[in-house]
Amino acid sequence: CLILLLALLAAAGLCRRFLDPASIFHLLDHPNHRSLHQQAIPRSGGVAILLAVVLSLAVAIVAGVLSLQWLLLWLLAGVLVLSMVGLVDDYGHVSPLVRFATHFLVAGLLLLAGLGVAGLQLPGYYLALPRWVGLVLEIGFIVWMITLYNLMDGMDGFAGGMSVIGFATLSLLGLWGGQADFALVCGATAAAAGGFLIWNFPPAKIFMGDAGAPVLGYLAAALSLWGTKLALFPLWVALLIFSPFIVDASYTLLLRMLRGKKVWQAHREHVYQQLVQLGWGHKRTVLLAYGLMLGCAVSAGCLIQASAIVQWLGLVAWLIIYVFIILGAGLLVKKRHSNQGAA
How far is Cα 325 from Cα 329, in angstroms, rounded to an integer? Predict the structure, then answer.
C-alpha cells in the first residue's frame, strides 16, 4: 500500500510542478481546429506518470517487495524507448514512420521478454496457433494498443480514468491469483495514473502528452500478455477490461479507412468526441465513460469463473451494448446536423 501511495503522490506532485512555467517540462498544448480544449494547457503529465511508476518500482525493489527479473527489465526498457521518442515529439515533431517503427521495436522487446502467444484461450476452447501466426498477432496487438491509447487521449480525464480502472482491475486479478509482483506493477501504474487524474479531471489543468499515452498503451498490452502468461486470465478478459478504448478507436479507424481518409491524422470523429461536440461536455461524457469502464471491469472479473456458455453470453451482451452506443451516437449526430440544416 505504501508503494502505491508513493506512486500516486509522486505523480500528483510532479504534475503540480510541471504546471509552473519555470519547469523544464512545462510544455504547452495549443488548441487547433481538431482540439476539444480552448486554451493552451501543459502536456507533460505523461512524464509525471512515468517517473512516478519508475520511482515506486525502484523503491519496491530496494525494499525487497518486488523481485528484479528479466521480464520487468525488458518491459521498462520499452517504456524508456517510447517515453523518449514521445518526449521528443512533444518538444518538436517526430514523423509517423519513426513513431510506428518505435512501436514495432518495443513490441520486439516484449518478444525477447518471453511474452509470446502460443494460442488463444477462448471460452470453453483453446485454439493453438502456428508460431508465425502467434508472432503476428502479438506484435499487432501491442502496436495497436500503443496506437489506440494515443488516439483516445483527447478528452479531459478519459485516458487517465481508463488507466486507473484498467490497471487497478489487472492488479486485483493478480492479487486473487497470488502473483504479488504482477499485482504491484499494475497497481503502481494505476496509482500513478490516479495522481495524474487529480489534475486531469475536467476541467483539465494538464494533459498526458505523447510521452505518456503511448507508454500506457504499451503497458496495457504488456501487462495483459504477462497476466495471460501467468494464467491469471485469458487474453479476452484483458480485452474486455480495456474494450471502451479498443472498440471506439477500432470502429472510428475502420470508418475513416472506408471513407478514404488519412487514418494517421488527428480528428474529432471518435464516439466520445461526438458526444462532447453534441453539448454533453467533458465531465458528463467522461463520467459516462467511467461507468462503462467499471461495468467492463466488474463483468470481466465475474466472467473469469463462469461457465463457457455464460462467458459467451457475457461477451455477446457487451457486443450488443457497444452496437447500441455507436448507433445511438450516430443518430444524435445526424439529428443535430438535420436541425442545423433546418435552421
Answer: 6
Residues 6+ apart with CB under 8 A from 60: 3, 66, 184, 188
pTM of the model: 0.90
DSSP code per residue over 107-163: HHHHHHTT----EEEETTEEEE--HHHHHHHHHHHHHHHHHHHHHH--STTHHHHHH
Count Cβ atoms below 10 Å from residue 209 Cβ, excluding itself. Answer: 25
Could you tell me which residues come within 8 angstroms of residue 183 by beta carbon, excluding any fewer than 6 positions away? 171, 172, 174, 175
Cβ atoms < 10 Å from Cβ of 152: 23
Query: Which one, of 143, 94, 153, 125, lies nearest residue 273 by Cα?
Result: 153
pLDDT per position as a tens digit, 231-254: 999 999 999 999 988 888 788 777
What is the C-alpha to C-alpha distance for residues 148 and 97, in angstroms, rounded to an integer? 16
Phi, psi of 121 (to 5 degrees): -90, 105
Neighbours of 33 (CB within 10 A): 6
Please name which of 238, 209, 214, 216 lies closest in space to residue 226, comparing C-alpha atoms: 238
